[in-house]
Design goal:
Layout lengths: L5 E5 L13 E6 L4 H16 L4 H21 L4 E8 L3 E8 L21 H9 L2 E6 L5 E8 L12
Antiparallel strand pairs: 1-5, 2-3, 3-4, 4-6, 5-6
């Protein structure tokens, strides 16, 4: 069995993560309300499965919304899959779609503000500790990101 193509973009010093919590996978329709559904699922799941600050949850919601929006725009399939996993100190969220094209590495320079598109993945590139795209066996791809999601040490910074 061959190795599947994968593109990974990683912040300096981040290494592999170890799964300690079960993951959750939900199927979403490729409809205009899918980004909102994904944000709600992420917020709800992180409140139960991880020790995240409000800022960390907000970043996860923003990034999942961007990935779901991109999947809807670029895939022809009626459904996408949202998978969320908590590891020892990281939350990993991925979106699977039927478009097999993997994403190319991005620059740290923000995209031009003219025209539509390009800014969502740049946000993922800037806010995620690691992100990438991986070919999946069904002919599509998974675009994923990881965020450090540790309980904040200062009082009042934790989710209530």
């Amino acid at each position: 069995m061959g190795v599947e193509p994968q593109h990974t973009h990683q912040a300096a010093g981040s290494g592999p993560s170890r799964i300690t919590q079960p993951s959750l996978t939900e199927t979403l329709p490729t409809t205009p309300d899918a980004p909102s559904l994904a944000r709600t699922l992420v917020r709800s799941w992180l409140s139960r499965a991880a020790q995240c600050t409000d800022e960390q949850v907000a970043n996860a919601e923003l990034l999942v919304s961007e990935l779901v929006s991109n999947a809807i725009k670029h895939t022809s399939g009626p459904l996408i899959a949202l998978t969320m996993t908590v590891t020892t100190d990281v939350v990993r969220i991925s979106i699977e779609d039927s478009d097999a094209r993997l994403l190319a590495p991005l620059s740290d320079v923000p995209p031009a503000h003219s025209g539509e598109g390009g800014r969502g993945l740049w946000l993922v590139h800037q806010l995620a500790d690691k992100w990438g795209s991986t070919a999946i066996g069904s002919g599509g791809k998974a675009v994923w990101f990881e965020l450090a999601c540790r309980e904040a040490s200062s009082p009042g910074a934790n989710r209530t």
